[in-house]
Every structure is written in structure tokens, then in C-alpha cells.
Amino acid sequence: MDIVIFDLEQVLKFQKSCLEFIEFDFSVESIRKEDSIVHILPAKLSKTFKLLIPAKKLQISAFKQAQMMSILPLLNPKVLEEIKIEIPEISQHGGHDSLGMDQIMETEQWKNAKKLNCDHFALGANVKKIAHFSIARISFASVSVQNLDILRKALLNFPIFENSNISIKFFLEHHQLSILWGAPYFSGFFVGWFFKMSNGDVMKIDYKPGFFTKSSKFRIFENQN
């Protein structure tokens, strides 16, 4: 293992360009084995690795925050642009659809990334923490209307914002949206609102109540004038 880490460090040390993509997979089978490379490699890297990994995109299959935190801080936050968090395929039917995100959202890697794609329902997470992503897809266990409105206001002043797709498992205050945002328009299963952005563009928010699905859905995106 030490030889593998040394070789990787030497490759990155003399590599002139950044990695386009790096992937880690924490599967149920592998984490049961304490001597698995899934356990050993992150610990070894964090102790001995002298360089941050310069990768533009991180794709990781995990269902524990500790697994994410064993990898994410190893990446160079000045290079990382995109984070993709997947549910390990073998655990999708085992109830592992939620992930603690409070520590993850405090990392420099999270704060500097531009794109997010997360399959999990985020636990202990504040929806305001995704306001810096130009493109985001994420689910939350619950979100208050007040925090959703704070996100809207932040995105209205974010010039490179493109779109966000947010699913909310427990959204009990939906009746307050029209109080904060005014009367919506109706289109099929969606209700929606338009807001003018600080740069003159128009933001459109579509809301689909979760009456017949597992969660309510918000689609927030910018319409170019």
C-alpha cells in the first residue's frame, strides 16, 4: 500500500495537467472487511500524502458521511469543480438513502465547487449551503419555507446561476409560499413563480407538490432574456 501511495504522489507531483475525473466506491461488501482497501487507502493518504489531488470532478458512492470526509478533504479545492455523490447500487434497497452532510458542507472543497449532483437525502444540512453552485441537484429530508426563500434571494444575486433541482421529503409549509412569493401560475402538476434577477435575467421556480410521490420537487432555473 505504501508503494502505491508513493507512486501516486510521484505521478501527481510531476503531472502538469489536472485530472479530469476521480472516482471512489464504498460498497456494502467492501466496508464489511476491515482490511479492505476502502478502509486502508483513505487513512494512508491522509497521513502520508503531501499533495492535494488536483481533480476537476469527484464521483463517490457512499452512504456514510465519514466515508465522504475520508476522501473529500484530500482534493485540491482550487481545482475541484464538480461533486457527484451516489448511493452504492447494492445498498439502494437497504434504506441507505440519507446522508449526513453538515461536515461535508463546511469543507473548502464543497464551498469552492461549482456543480453538485447528490442522490441522497441530505441530513443535518441547510439548503442555504447550496447557493454557490451554478448547477445543483440534491434532496433534503426537510426544508423550511424561510430557508427556501433565503436560497431564492441568494440565487437572484448570483450572476452565473443556471439551475437547481431540489427534492424535499417532508415539506409541510407549502401553503406559505404564496404568502412570501405572491400568487403563482399553474401548469399541469406544477405551480410556479417568476422573479427578476439582479443581472436583468429572469428566474423561474416550478414547484410540484409531493401528493402522489415520495417528495415535493422544486425546479429553479434562469431564463435568459
TrEMBL record:
Keywords: Membrane, Transmembrane, Transmembrane helix. Pfam families: FTH. The keyword Transmembrane helix applies. The chain crosses the membrane at residues 177-195. Residues 46-168 form the DUF38 domain. InterPro entries: DUF38/FTH_CAE_spp, FB224. It comes from the Eukaryota. This is DUF38 domain-containing protein.
